[in-house]
What we know:
Elements: H1 2-33, H2 36-45
Amino acid sequence: MQKVYKKFTKSLQKVYKKFTKSLQLYQRFFIKKEAPDYKFYSENRQ
C-alpha cells in the first residue's frame, strides 16, 4: 500500500510543479501585458 502511495505522491508533486511553473509564467505574462498596477498591488499586499 505504501508503495502505491509513494508513487501517487511523486506523480502528484510532478503535476503540482508543472502547474505552479505554468502559473508563474502566466502571472508574469499577465503582469507584463495586462496590468502594471497588478504587480504593484501584489507587492504591497505582502
